[in-house]
Amino acid sequence: MRYAIPIGVFVLLIAVLAVGLRLDPRYVPSPLIDKSVPEFSLPALRNGETSVSSSHLRNRPRLLNVWASWCVACRVEHPLLLSLAKTGQVDIVGLNYKDERADALAWLARHGDPYAQIVYDVEGRLGLDLGVYGVPETFIIDKNGIIRHKQVGPLNNDTLNQVILPMLSELASEP
Amino acid sequence: MIPEIGQFTLALALAVASVQASLPLVGAIRGYDSWMGLAKPAARIQFLLVFSAFLILVHAFVSNDFSVAYVAQNSNTALPTAYRVSAVWGAHEGSLLLWIVILAGWTYAVTLFDSQLPRSFAALVLSVMGIVSVGFLSFLMFTSNPFARLLPAAADGGDLNPLLQDPGLIIHPPMLYVGYVGSSVAFGFAIAALIEGRITAQAARWIRPWAVGSWIFLTIGIALGSWWAYYELGWGGWWFWDPVENASFMPWLLGTALIHSLAVTEKRGTFKNWTVLLALATFALSLLGTFLVRSGVLTSVHAFATDPGRGIFVLVLLAIMIGGSFVLYAWRGPSTFSGGTFEPVSREVFLLLNSTLLAVATATVLLGTLYPLILEALGLGKISVGPPYFNVVFGAVMLPLIGLLGIGQFSRWKSDSIRRLLVRLRYAFIATVATAGCAAVALGGQHAMSAAIGIGFGIWVFVTTIFGIVERCRHREHVWYTLFHLPRAFVGQCIAHIGFGCTVIGVVITSFYTIDEHQSLAPGDRALVSDYEFHFVGLSSFDGPNYRVTEGTFDIRRDGQLVATLKPQKRLYVVRNMPMTEAGISPGFTRDLYVALGEPLEDGAWSVRMHLKPFIRWIWLGAILMALGGFMAMFDPRLRSPVTLRSEQSATSPVSD
Amino acid sequence: MQTIIYVVLLGCVAFAVHSADIPVSFESPHDEQRYVELLEQLRCLVCQNQSLSDSHAELAQDLRSEVYKMIASGKHNDEIMAFMVERYGDFVLYKPPMKSTTWLLWFGPLLLLLVALSIVLLATKRRRETQLPLSDEERQRVQHLIEPDKQ
Questions:
Q1: Is A158 at the interface with chain C, CB within 8 A?
Q2: What is the pTM for the complete model shown?
Q3: Residue B598 and residue B594: Cα distance in Å, rounded?
């Protein structure tokens, strides 16, 4: 029955390709899921005297949103972050990635500021440790400082309602 | 107005192709002479129609008709005319139309030469090619219309991607397409053979030039792509195992297997199943390549920006055409073929090993290319499979192939003995080892051993080829006469094999002995690359037709003598505001010198990359020789003469042989 | 989303101006060689068709300096690769790691080669064995064909 081998292999191939069409070839899954947020201690954006560190990302679930004033797509998701911050459901911590302080503050003044705290990562060191490659990116961090989810690219209503919010409520009810 | 005519012409072509695809097929199976007779005129009319549509699109580009969306996206008034024409195939819709025109062209060519085939067989081949035409014309018309209007018309176009504004890009895609599409002839032949349940020696003889012909163009197309990447992309690389490169390489590998297997089927009547399978699979890989480039399934520099909707369409096309052909193979294969006998040691077996190893190599490349997708589809994470994998694994499969090539081209049909081969070839082996050893000493360095082994394989091909010629001539009475009257096919084979050896040697030496220097240089500075001194003389700025240039001048000296003056450029294409690098290259038979400007740094210095690339031209020289060899083999008169006598018979009585 | 991808791809090809393509120098040529080789084995996550060595994306420049620092501080190649994989996953390596999920990838070709060669061997042997000797009737027919005059 070796004459059936070609069609057999071909059917498998088509199946793989069909599934492949629904995947995004540029998406890179994060190896940091279920690992601790990397240790850091960096100055805050708004008040350069104080600092934000990894120990601040505990006690309750948070969103860590990587953004910059030079990032065009960040503007797309920003209204969603603002409305989410208003609901008070979750604290959003900002990570200002490879930006100028003045530019970042001006951007926030123009577009609104949903962040409870903002890390000023001018050299991109924390971004590198978090495996950031495509700003904006959003991480869900649980109360123990463990990264539970990573969203690459701007948030939209679908990802917010179908992934982020459900996960947050799940985490809130975790012991 | 005129673009609408183009659209109408395509619709008409689809209708004609549908006739070409259906009626002659039924006619051949049922024996309806008049239906079979429709194949030739339908094919010819289809060609005229699609070619007219193509000319209309070219006209739209040359006349800057920005009311056609495709023109508006890919051209510009400042674009030089030559590039306006090549812009026609610079993106998805136009290149697809080119594909279709080339397919119609091959079909037309078949109608010019099919008198040598039994009527029903020819009708089947043309029908199958018609089915492929219908598939692609539908794809074009329903998802990728090149004549779609942009209203209101753009004031000026988005310009052709500057990377594509280059002579290499004018001929690389057409050559590649001629090769890809040409494999549809062998595909048609294989389907016809499966439907009719037999392959006559006549048919096998007929198809050989067609299989070789399409292979030649694939060889040239791939070599052009490699050469173009080398001089255009600015990093001195010539092969990246990029998914789309692999997509062109796989049909080439399998196409090579096909032409070798066909040689056996034609001469000895054996391996018919295998040859048919290879013909089906080669075309399948061509279509797979089309899918990979246009569906967005894999990231690649070559991928056309396109959407998953088109990807689904192509996948369905693929499933129907290739799936259908493999189902036919599974159904008709077992009952169909048999024939020929040969001993365990014979030329047949060597050729079988050759095509088997090539098939394994192809499967290896396919596995590596698709593996990331497979893992991701199964939710098992995302990995990369890149050059470190392919170089090792592919190289490992190639080595036995090259070794066997040497022995195989020396072996006798039907029956041979290991003893005879070993005795005959022992001097060849010694000569190879000696030469490789000398090469290792001459090249030196820490890689000398590995390089010597690689070079040895290439030299093995040279030596055994020469020995084969000698063997053929020496026992004849008139040695020199024999030498100058060797059959064209044999000469072609020798040249092609030598070309292959050249490519192997070029690959090995360049891989091990390339020297890369990356330094910060200001005008006036000097840098040393091996024993070449690069002197950055100065910079100048000026304007090109649609770009601004900063050009550096480098004098290169060796032992105090001026060897070359190179002028690498940094261009800014104004329409898309896109920078491009043009490298300065001094080509040579034994080495290339290569300079590329990077970015301007502080204090007037520039980041400059300088490379010494030994023997790199041998890679493409080898490809040219392979194509030349194939060309000679194609036109061997022996592939014609006995057949013409039978053509009268078969024209009148379809059931002959 | 499409526009963003388009912009990124354009940026990759266009050699983003604000990332510098700074040549680096090492004390030992061995280190320099390691640097070059490592960069070619790592994929740029932004310009995904280029290695860290070729890419002009800013992330690539950052990672290049990271690799440089790590080599200068005496780290081994394995440690540097591990650093990258920890942050970006296996995707960043051009050479697929040897894991249970990649056994088929690494051993598949060898397996295929052995299977193919054994098929060829069997087919050749089988062909020899199916050459049956001629029956008497067939022998007579052959005789008749060769020498038609003899009855």
A1: no
A2: 0.91
A3: 13
Q: What was the ipTM of the complex prediction?
A: 0.88
- Is residue B21 in a domain? yes
Residue B220's pLDDT is what? 97
Residues B587 and B505 in one domain: no
Residue B303 lies in a domain: no
* Same-domain pairing of B535 and B481: no
In contact, B274 and B282? CB cutoff 8 Å = no
- The answer to whether residues B572 and B444 belong to one domain is no
Asked if residue B461 belongs to a domain, the reply is yes
The answer on B144 and B40 residing in a single domain is yes
Q: Is C109 on the interface with B (CB under 8 A)?
A: yes
Question: Could you name the CATH architecture of C2-97?
Answer: Orthogonal Bundle (1.10)
From the candidate CATH numbers 3.50.50.60, 3.20.20.70, 3.40.30.10, 3.65.10.10, the one assigned to the domain spanning A30-172? 3.40.30.10
DSSP B156: S
Of B457, B487, B513, the last residue of a domain is B513
Minimal C-alpha gap between B353 and chain C (Å): 7
Interface of B with C in 58-117 (CB under 8 A): none
Interface test with B, best of A21, A24, A33, A133 (most B CBs within 10 A): A21
Q: Which of B490, B513, B536 is the last residue of a domain?
A: B513
CB contact under 8 Å between C48 and B299, yes or no, is yes
For residue B609, the surrounding DSSP H or E stretch is strand B606-614
Q: What pLDDT score does B643 carry?
A: 46
Read off the pLDDT of residues A59-110 as tens digits, 9 standing for 90 and up: 889 999 999 999 999 999 999 999 999 998 889 999 999 999 999 999 999 9
> DSSP class of residue A36?
B
Structural domain of B566: 515-615
CB of C98 within 8 Å of a chain B CB? The answer is no
- Contacting residues of C for B520, CB less than 8 Å apart: 22-23
Q: Reply yes or no on whether the pLDDT at C15 is more than 60.
A: no
Interchain pair B360, C22: CB under 8 A: no
Q: What digits encode the pLDDT tens for the residues B26-37?
A: 999 998 999 999
Does any domain span residue B257? no
Regions of chain B where pLDDT drops below 70: 305-306, 336-340, 639-657
Distance between CA atoms of C16 and C60, rounded to whole angstroms? 11
- Going from N- to C-terminal start, the domains of chain A cover 30-172
Q: In sequence order, what are the beta bridge partners of B519?
A: B608
**Confidence band of C129 (pLDDT split at 50, 70, 90):** low
CA gap B391, B385 in Å, rounded: 11
Q: Is A29 on the interface with C (CB under 8 A)?
A: yes
CB contact under 8 A, C91 and B384: yes
Number of domains in chain B: 3
